[in-house]
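Repro:
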Amino acid sequence: MVQCSVIVPTYKEAGNLESLSRRLFKAFKEFRGGALGDIELIFVDDNSRDGSQQHVERLAAQGLNCRIIVRTVERGLSSAVLRGFAEARGEYLICMDADLQHPPEKAPELAQALVEGAEFVLGTRYGSQDSIDKDWPLHRRVISTGARLLALPLSSLNDPMSGFFGIPRHVLQRAVANKVSPIGFKIALEIFVKARVDHSRVVHVPISFGVRTVGESKLSSKVILSYLSHLVELYHFTFPALIPVLVVLILTLLVLLVVKLW
Protein backbone atom coordinates (compact mmCIF):
# COMPACT_ATOMS: atom_id res chain seq x y z
CA MET A 1 0.00 0.00 0.00
CA VAL A 2 1.42 3.37 -1.04
CA GLN A 3 1.60 5.82 1.85
CA CYS A 4 3.43 8.70 0.14
CA SER A 5 3.36 9.97 -3.44
CA VAL A 6 6.09 12.23 -4.81
CA ILE A 7 5.06 14.42 -7.73
CA VAL A 8 7.67 15.90 -10.07
CA PRO A 9 6.59 18.25 -12.88
CA THR A 10 9.01 18.13 -15.81
CA TYR A 11 9.82 19.82 -19.07
CA LYS A 12 12.99 18.82 -20.90
CA GLU A 13 14.60 17.37 -17.76
CA ALA A 14 15.54 13.95 -19.19
CA GLY A 15 19.12 14.28 -17.98
CA ASN A 16 18.03 14.48 -14.33
CA LEU A 17 15.36 11.81 -14.09
CA GLU A 18 17.44 8.70 -13.40
CA SER A 19 19.59 10.36 -10.75
CA LEU A 20 16.55 11.88 -9.04
CA SER A 21 14.65 8.58 -9.08
CA ARG A 22 17.46 6.43 -7.73
CA ARG A 23 18.40 8.93 -5.03
CA LEU A 24 14.78 9.34 -3.96
CA PHE A 25 14.00 5.64 -3.60
CA LYS A 26 17.33 5.03 -1.86
CA ALA A 27 16.58 7.85 0.60
CA PHE A 28 13.16 6.45 1.52
CA LYS A 29 14.54 2.93 1.85
CA GLU A 30 17.27 4.07 4.23
CA PHE A 31 15.19 6.55 6.27
CA ARG A 32 14.56 4.95 9.65
CA GLY A 33 14.89 1.51 8.13
CA GLY A 34 12.16 2.08 5.57
CA ALA A 35 9.59 3.01 8.23
CA LEU A 36 7.65 5.19 5.81
CA GLY A 37 6.68 2.17 3.73
CA ASP A 38 6.06 2.08 0.02
CA ILE A 39 6.19 5.25 -2.06
CA GLU A 40 5.38 6.09 -5.65
CA LEU A 41 7.07 8.62 -7.91
CA ILE A 42 4.97 10.34 -10.56
CA PHE A 43 6.49 12.54 -13.25
CA VAL A 44 4.10 14.90 -15.04
CA ASP A 45 5.72 15.92 -18.29
CA ASP A 46 4.57 18.67 -20.67
CA ASN A 47 5.37 16.71 -23.82
CA SER A 48 9.12 17.30 -23.68
CA ARG A 49 9.87 14.77 -26.43
CA ASP A 50 13.44 14.56 -25.12
CA GLY A 51 13.44 10.94 -24.07
CA SER A 52 11.91 11.56 -20.63
CA GLN A 53 9.13 9.03 -21.19
CA GLN A 54 11.55 6.32 -22.25
CA HIS A 55 13.84 7.02 -19.26
CA VAL A 56 10.98 6.63 -16.78
CA GLU A 57 9.58 3.52 -18.46
CA ARG A 58 13.04 1.92 -18.32
CA LEU A 59 13.36 2.71 -14.61
CA ALA A 60 9.90 1.24 -13.97
CA ALA A 61 10.90 -1.92 -15.83
CA GLN A 62 13.88 -2.18 -13.47
CA GLY A 63 11.57 -2.29 -10.46
CA LEU A 64 11.22 1.32 -9.36
CA ASN A 65 7.64 2.33 -8.56
CA CYS A 66 7.59 5.27 -10.94
CA ARG A 67 5.48 6.34 -13.89
CA ILE A 68 5.10 9.31 -16.18
CA ILE A 69 2.06 11.25 -17.31
CA VAL A 70 2.71 12.98 -20.63
CA ARG A 71 0.43 15.94 -21.25
CA THR A 72 -0.04 16.99 -24.86
CA VAL A 73 -2.63 19.73 -24.38
CA GLU A 74 -2.22 21.27 -20.93
CA ARG A 75 0.85 23.29 -20.00
CA GLY A 76 2.20 24.87 -16.84
CA LEU A 77 3.93 23.87 -13.63
CA SER A 78 1.01 24.40 -11.27
CA SER A 79 -1.50 22.48 -13.34
CA ALA A 80 1.07 19.68 -13.69
CA VAL A 81 1.40 19.43 -9.91
CA LEU A 82 -2.37 19.37 -9.45
CA ARG A 83 -2.68 16.67 -12.12
CA GLY A 84 -0.11 14.57 -10.33
CA PHE A 85 -1.82 15.04 -6.97
CA ALA A 86 -5.15 14.04 -8.51
CA GLU A 87 -3.74 10.77 -9.86
CA ALA A 88 -1.61 9.92 -6.83
CA ARG A 89 -2.54 6.98 -4.59
CA GLY A 90 -0.77 8.10 -1.41
CA GLU A 91 -2.33 9.80 1.60
CA TYR A 92 0.68 12.12 1.85
CA LEU A 93 1.65 14.19 -1.17
CA ILE A 94 5.05 15.74 -1.86
CA CYS A 95 6.02 18.05 -4.71
CA MET A 96 9.58 18.67 -5.81
CA ASP A 97 11.42 19.95 -8.87
CA ALA A 98 13.23 17.75 -11.37
CA ASP A 99 16.34 19.92 -11.59
CA LEU A 100 17.97 18.39 -8.47
CA GLN A 101 18.06 21.75 -6.70
CA HIS A 102 15.65 20.12 -4.26
CA PRO A 103 17.72 17.33 -2.64
CA PRO A 104 15.84 14.00 -2.90
CA GLU A 105 17.48 12.91 0.36
CA LYS A 106 15.31 15.44 2.21
CA ALA A 107 11.98 14.13 0.88
CA PRO A 108 11.61 11.48 3.62
CA GLU A 109 11.88 14.20 6.28
CA LEU A 110 8.97 16.03 4.66
CA ALA A 111 6.96 12.82 4.55
CA GLN A 112 7.72 12.02 8.21
CA ALA A 113 6.48 15.47 9.28
CA LEU A 114 3.18 14.78 7.51
CA VAL A 115 2.87 11.37 9.16
CA GLU A 116 3.37 13.08 12.51
CA GLY A 117 0.47 15.46 11.91
CA ALA A 118 1.74 18.48 10.00
CA GLU A 119 -0.82 20.15 7.72
CA PHE A 120 1.91 21.59 5.53
CA VAL A 121 5.64 20.95 5.36
CA LEU A 122 8.12 23.04 3.39
CA GLY A 123 11.68 22.44 2.31
CA THR A 124 13.24 25.83 3.02
CA ARG A 125 16.44 27.53 1.94
CA TYR A 126 16.19 29.90 4.90
CA GLY A 127 16.17 27.55 7.91
CA SER A 128 18.72 27.50 10.70
CA GLN A 129 20.85 24.91 8.91
CA ASP A 130 20.11 25.85 5.34
CA SER A 131 22.46 26.94 2.62
CA ILE A 132 22.26 28.31 -0.89
CA ASP A 133 24.98 27.44 -3.36
CA LYS A 134 27.59 30.21 -3.52
CA ASP A 135 27.25 30.23 -7.31
CA TRP A 136 23.54 31.08 -7.18
CA PRO A 137 23.31 34.45 -9.04
CA LEU A 138 22.90 37.64 -7.00
CA HIS A 139 19.85 38.73 -9.00
CA ARG A 140 18.15 35.41 -8.15
CA ARG A 141 18.81 36.03 -4.46
CA VAL A 142 17.39 39.54 -4.68
CA ILE A 143 14.28 38.38 -6.54
CA SER A 144 13.76 35.52 -4.06
CA THR A 145 14.01 37.85 -1.08
CA GLY A 146 11.62 40.36 -2.62
CA ALA A 147 9.10 37.65 -3.47
CA ARG A 148 9.23 36.34 0.10
CA LEU A 149 8.57 39.78 1.55
CA LEU A 150 5.57 40.36 -0.70
CA ALA A 151 4.03 37.06 0.43
CA LEU A 152 4.61 37.53 4.17
CA PRO A 153 1.06 38.72 5.03
CA LEU A 154 -0.39 35.66 3.31
CA SER A 155 1.37 32.84 5.13
CA SER A 156 3.74 31.75 7.87
CA LEU A 157 6.00 30.06 5.31
CA ASN A 158 9.53 31.41 5.42
CA ASP A 159 10.29 30.28 1.87
CA PRO A 160 7.03 30.07 -0.14
CA MET A 161 9.03 30.21 -3.38
CA SER A 162 10.93 26.95 -2.91
CA GLY A 163 8.37 24.62 -4.52
CA PHE A 164 9.52 21.69 -2.33
CA PHE A 165 6.54 20.95 -0.11
CA GLY A 166 4.21 18.33 1.22
CA ILE A 167 0.58 18.18 2.26
CA PRO A 168 -1.88 15.49 3.42
CA ARG A 169 -4.59 14.64 0.94
CA HIS A 170 -7.41 15.80 3.24
CA VAL A 171 -5.83 19.26 3.57
CA LEU A 172 -5.40 19.49 -0.20
CA GLN A 173 -9.14 18.85 -0.53
CA ARG A 174 -9.82 22.05 1.43
CA ALA A 175 -7.84 23.99 -1.18
CA VAL A 176 -9.71 22.24 -3.99
CA ALA A 177 -13.01 23.19 -2.34
CA ASN A 178 -11.87 26.83 -2.41
CA LYS A 179 -11.12 26.57 -6.14
CA VAL A 180 -7.37 26.22 -6.08
CA SER A 181 -6.00 27.83 -9.24
CA PRO A 182 -3.69 26.02 -11.68
CA ILE A 183 -2.39 29.35 -12.99
CA GLY A 184 1.08 30.55 -12.06
CA PHE A 185 4.29 28.95 -10.84
CA LYS A 186 3.93 29.17 -7.05
CA ILE A 187 1.52 26.35 -6.40
CA ALA A 188 2.80 25.88 -2.82
CA LEU A 189 1.63 29.34 -1.81
CA GLU A 190 -1.65 28.90 -3.70
CA ILE A 191 -2.47 25.63 -1.93
CA PHE A 192 -1.36 26.96 1.47
CA VAL A 193 -3.63 29.99 1.24
CA LYS A 194 -6.64 28.25 -0.31
CA ALA A 195 -6.46 25.35 2.19
CA ARG A 196 -6.42 27.83 5.09
CA VAL A 197 -3.65 25.81 6.70
CA ASP A 198 -3.40 25.89 10.49
CA HIS A 199 -0.20 27.93 11.00
CA SER A 200 0.58 26.02 14.19
CA ARG A 201 0.83 22.81 12.15
CA VAL A 202 3.41 24.01 9.63
CA VAL A 203 6.85 22.38 9.61
CA HIS A 204 9.94 23.78 7.93
CA VAL A 205 12.69 21.37 6.86
CA PRO A 206 16.02 23.11 6.09
CA ILE A 207 17.54 22.14 2.73
CA SER A 208 20.72 22.89 0.85
CA PHE A 209 19.76 24.56 -2.41
CA GLY A 210 22.19 24.35 -5.32
CA VAL A 211 22.46 25.48 -8.91
CA ARG A 212 20.95 23.36 -11.66
CA THR A 213 23.33 21.25 -13.74
CA VAL A 214 20.95 20.09 -16.49
CA GLY A 215 18.05 21.97 -18.11
CA GLU A 216 17.18 25.64 -18.07
CA SER A 217 15.72 27.93 -15.42
CA LYS A 218 12.06 28.82 -15.87
CA LEU A 219 12.51 32.30 -14.38
CA SER A 220 11.70 35.19 -16.73
CA SER A 221 10.10 38.63 -16.66
CA LYS A 222 6.86 36.94 -17.68
CA VAL A 223 7.07 34.63 -14.67
CA ILE A 224 7.72 37.59 -12.36
CA LEU A 225 4.67 39.43 -13.69
CA SER A 226 2.62 36.25 -13.35
CA TYR A 227 3.71 35.96 -9.72
CA LEU A 228 2.65 39.53 -8.96
CA SER A 229 -0.71 38.90 -10.58
CA HIS A 230 -1.03 35.72 -8.55
CA LEU A 231 -0.32 37.66 -5.35
CA VAL A 232 -3.13 40.09 -6.13
CA GLU A 233 -5.55 37.17 -6.49
CA LEU A 234 -4.41 35.60 -3.22
CA TYR A 235 -4.62 38.90 -1.36
CA HIS A 236 -8.13 39.31 -2.71
CA PHE A 237 -9.00 35.84 -1.39
CA THR A 238 -7.46 36.51 2.05
CA PHE A 239 -8.12 40.25 2.53
CA PRO A 240 -10.89 41.20 0.07
CA ALA A 241 -11.46 44.65 1.58
CA LEU A 242 -7.81 45.69 1.10
CA ILE A 243 -7.37 44.75 -2.55
CA PRO A 244 -7.52 48.28 -4.09
CA VAL A 245 -4.70 49.49 -1.83
CA LEU A 246 -2.63 46.37 -2.40
CA VAL A 247 -2.88 46.63 -6.18
CA VAL A 248 -1.47 50.16 -6.04
CA LEU A 249 1.36 49.11 -3.72
CA ILE A 250 2.36 46.11 -5.82
CA LEU A 251 2.29 48.11 -9.05
CA THR A 252 4.43 50.80 -7.41
CA LEU A 253 6.97 48.21 -6.28
CA LEU A 254 7.04 46.74 -9.77
CA VAL A 255 7.71 50.13 -11.36
CA LEU A 256 10.52 50.82 -8.87
CA LEU A 257 12.05 47.41 -9.58
CA VAL A 258 11.94 47.92 -13.33
CA VAL A 259 13.49 51.40 -13.04
CA LYS A 260 16.23 50.05 -10.76
CA LEU A 261 17.10 47.14 -13.06
CA TRP A 262 16.95 49.31 -16.17
